[in-house]
Amino acid sequence: MTAPWKLLAEDLQAARDRDPAARSRFEIVLGYPGLHALWSHRLTHAMWQWAPLKLAARVLSQITRSLTGVEIHPGAVLGRRLFIDHGMGVVIGETAVVGDDVTLFHGVTLGGRSMTHGKRHPTIGNGVVIGAGAKVLGPIWVGDHAQIGANAVVVKDVPSHAVAVGVPAQIKGRPTSAPIVEHCEDPAIFI
Question: What enzyme class is recorded for this protein (predicted)?
Answer without folding.
Answer: transferase
